[in-house]
Amino acid sequence: MSNDEDSQKNISGLSFRDMRLISDSVKENPNTLFLDEDIVENPFFFKLRKILYRLYEKLESGSGIGAFLLDFGKYMSSRFRVLFVFNSVLFEILLGKFEKRKDTFVKKLFWGRGDFLKSTMQFLSVILVLVVLLAYLYRTPELQSVNAEELDYITVSETDLLVMNATVNTAIPKDRERRAVEEYIVKNGDTLSSIAQDWDVTVDTIKWANNLTSDLVRPGQTLDIPPSDGVLVTVKKGDTLSSLAKKYSASDQAIADFNWLDYPFTLEAGTQLFIPEGKMPTSTVIASRTTPSSYVRNTSVPSTNVGAADPNVGKFLGWPVQNGGKISQYYKGVYHRGIDIADSSLPKIVAPASGTVIFAGCYGTCPPLGSTYGGTNYAWSIQIDHGNGYTTWYAHLKNIYVRSGQTVTKGQVIGQMGSTGRSTGPHLHFEVRKGSAYGTQVNPLYYVNW
Fold it and tell me: Which domain holds residue 117?
C-alpha cells in the first residue's frame, strides 16, 4: 500500500462528525481543557492535575482570600525574579571590575617585578627588626643557680639602695593560715631568732626541721619553716600514730587532725608528717606523752589559745558534755579549730544553749549510726544556730537524737559521744563559729560559762 493511500485512510473510531462536535464545543467554552485520558499512563496524576487546574481557575476568577493569596504569590514571584536579575547584573559588574583589577596587578607584577621585590624585602626587614626588638624587651630572665658559699659577700646591695632591703622570699601575710612547710632563703642581717619571730615559731622548731646543730645561718641558705611549733618527721616502717605521739611527746589526735589522717590511721613508710607541738627526743631523756588529766571545770584557758570573746554575746554557752569529761586538745586556730572533750564512757551530748538545729547528719563518710568507730572527716555531726550570729558544731558522734529544723533548749540531749571519723579515741570535737561556714571558728573557751 502506498503512502498516499495510508494518509487518506480513516482513523478508526473517529468520524468527521465527531471532530465537528468537538470544534463546536471548544468555540462555546474556550476555557475547557481537553485531554485524552486514554493516553495518560497514570490516571491518578491526570485527575490530580485536573483538580489543581480547576482550583487555579476558580481562585483566579474569584474574589475571596484564596484569590488574594494567589495574586500575592504571583506578585512576590515577579519581585523575586526582578531581584534575581538585578543581583545577577550587579555580580557581573563586580566580577568585571575584579577581573580588570587582577589584570592590572598581574601586569605590574610582570613589568615591575624588580620594584615589587624591593618593596617586599623592605617590608620583611622592618618586620624582622620589630620581632628582634620585642624579643629583647620581653626576653626570659636568665636563672642562675647559687649556693650559700657564693652569697657570703654580695656587692650589689652596697651600691643599689633598692636592693639593700630586698628579699627573694615570697611575702606571706601573717594572718594567712599555713598548713604546709614553707621555704625561706636567708638574707643579710637575718638571725635564727629573728626568722623564728617573723614566722611565729620557736627557734627549736626551725632547727629540728633543718637538722641544725647551731644558731648560725648564712645569706642564701634555704630553710624549711614548719606551719607551727612542732617536729617534721618521715614515717619509718613499723611507726604508728600512737608510737609517734609517744616518741615526740604529742597528741595522736592532734597528729591525725593536722595531717588529715582517717580511721584506721595506717601510716605509709616514707610519708612526711608534722607533729604539732611535738618535741625532739634527746639521747638521754625521752619526754612522755602529755595527756591532760584535769577535768574541764578545773582547767584554766591556756595561753596558746587565740582570739578574744565578742562583747556583744559574752559567755552564753554551757558545757556540752554530761558529767564533765576532760579536754584532750585545745583550740589552736590553724590546725585545730575547736576543743576536744574526751570521756571513754561515751556520755550524752547536750545543747549548751537554746537554738535551732541547722545540720544533723554525716559530714564526710560515716559508719551506721550506733557505731563507735569508722568513717572520715567529722563523720556524724550536729550544728546549732543560737540566733545571735554564732553557731556550735558537735563532731565524731555515735548517735544523733535531733533532726534539722528542730528547736532545742539549753541542756537538752542532742546526741552521744563517739569516735567516728578522724578520731583516735572517744571524744567530742566542739566548735564555735561566727556564722555557719567552715573557717569562721573562734575559741570556744571564751564563750563557755564556767
Answer: 63-140
Q: What is the pLDDT of residues 249-258, one digit of tens each?
A: 887 788 887 8
pLDDT above 80 for 24: no
Provide the percentage of residues in the chain whose pLDDT is more than 70.
Answer: 73
Q: Which among 281, 228, 289, 237 has a CA at the least distance from the CA of 259?
A: 228
**Grid coordinates representing 60?**
483566579
Span 138-160, pLDDT tens digits: 665 554 444 444 444 444 444 44
The CA-atom distances, in angstroms, between 57 and each of 31, 50, 67, 302 are 9, 11, 10, 106
Facing residues of 340 across strands?
A: 329, 429
Q: Which residues of 306-338 are buried (b: 16+ CB within 10 A; e: fewer)?
A: eeeebeebeebbebbbbeebbbbbbbbeebbbb
CATH number at 213 reads 3.10.350.10
Q: For residue 322, what is its C-alpha cell?
A: 554530761
Taking alpha carbons only, the member of 210, 215, 208 closest to residue 231 is: 208
pLDDT of 307 reads 52
H/E stretch holding 381? strand 379-385
Q: Does residue 99 fall inside a structural domain?
A: yes
Query: Taking the complete model, does pTM exceed 0.70, yes or no?
Result: no
Say if residue 354 is exposed, middle or buried (CB neighbours under 10 Å; 0-12, 13-18, 19+). middle
How far apart CA 31 and CA 33 sit, in angstroms, is 6
- At 385-396, the pLDDT tens digits run 999 999 999 999
Nearest Cα to 348, choosing from 291, 416, 407, 406? 416
Q: Count how many domains the chain has.
A: 4
d(CA 60, CA 126): 73
